[in-house]
Amino acid sequence: MIEFFNVNSIESAKKTFGIAPGGFRYGFIADIFPENVYRELTSSFPDVKKFKLVDKMSGGGHKRFYIAPHYDVSKNMGCWCHLRFFPPLWRKVLQEAASPEFISFLSDSIGVEFNSLAVFGHTYGNEGCVQEPHIDGAVREDKGKYPSTLATLLYFNEDSDNTSGTCVYATDRKTVLFQAPGMRNGMFFFEQHPDAWHGFPVMPKGAERRLVSLAYSMEESPVSLKNSLFHRLACIPTYKRMAKKIIR
């Protein structure tokens, strides 16, 4: 049973999904969470003052925004003990996002095949932040071992201002094919493709971007998040992190 994501919203949005000239799919799902769930997630969004600034060229464009610790299947292989500080509801929502039931439902709804949650993490943007049109590592020549097939962004702003919504661009990197219409309680997605140029414009004064990025991939065997007590007690990376803190 899918408990936290709004299945009806996903079903209702299917008719609005688009296909770019390059052949990749994209779309937006409003009210991705029930309002009570959304309010609790928003109120417990991690402290953005602790996020790390990323300011560099990547994938053909300049990016400047803030990131929190994240999960990467190529490094963590199902272990997310380093994110144990997440509030209980956040952990439950991310577990559901990685569950076979939700993955199957979302894959069928969008029409893109994937079987694992490959990457997830919180990001934040404010005045001056930007992500120029670029393509992700999943489709670049330097792509990693576990390239994603679908990128999704979950927006957690208090209001629906869309001045900084993510855009999908044509291959000229200027023409906007689609822009996320709101920054409150929505899921924006696009299928990874060599022509899937995307980004967001320079953010104006007073604007914010609070979101969680989820990337899905097709693995030879599905990779699940490890949640058992046995794993937490036997997690070697956790003990290594503890040892480093003691040495310091």
Summarize the structure in short:
This protein is an alpha+beta fold. 24% of the residues lie in helices and 31% in strands.
What gross morphology would you assign?
globular
In DSSP terms, counting alpha (H) and pi (I) runs of 4 or more, how many helices?
7
Question: Strand-residue fraction?
Answer: 25-35%
Low-confidence stretches: 239-243
Distance between the termini: 45 Å
How would you name the oligomeric state of the polypeptide chains in this document? Answer: single chain
Portion of residues within helices: 10-25%
Largest sheet: 12 strands, antiparallel
Fourth-tier CATH superfamily name:
q2cbj1_9rhob like domain
Estimated radius of gyration: 18 Å
The CATH class: Mainly Beta
Q: What is the total domain count? A: 1
Structural class category: alpha+beta
List how many beta strands DSSP finds. 12
Which CATH architecture is right? Sandwich
